[in-house]
Amino acid sequence: MKNEAKHLFEKMVDFKRFAISMLAVGSFFYIGLIIPDTANAVSDLYIMAGSSSAFLFGSILFFILSKRCRSKLNETDKGQEYLMRK
Questions:
Q1: From CA 4, how far away is CA 7, in angstroms rounded?
Q2: SS3 label, residue 75
Q3: Cα separation, 73 vs 52, whole angstroms
């Protein structure tokens, strides 16, 4: 049980790191989209908009997964101990 709580806690932290990283990358793509001189063609704008959206949706997905792991940890006593320690 303790290993399961530790494993779930590590997954929660990893999902949160993935989400933050994807949010940062998506933000950079969005900044490239709003700067007028970066794109030479309309297709470049569509690619940057699609990439920015994809990274944003991925970030949201990983935040949801992290929240699910946290709620599972809150249901168990060992999981609450891990959350209180960190």
A1: 5
A2: helix
A3: 32
Residue 8 near residue 73, CB atoms below 8 Å: yes
In the chain, count of helices (H) and strands (E)? 3, 0
| Residue 56: φ, ψ to 5° | -65, -45
The tens digit of pLDDT for each residue in 21-73 reads: 999 999 988 888 888 776 677 787 888 889 999 999 999 999 999 999 999 98
Distance CA 60, CA 74 (A): 21
Q: Which residue has the tokens 């959350």?
A: 83
**Cα–Cα dist 22/25, whole Å:** 5
Contact 61, 53 (CB under 8 A): no
Show the tokens assigned to 28.
């950079």
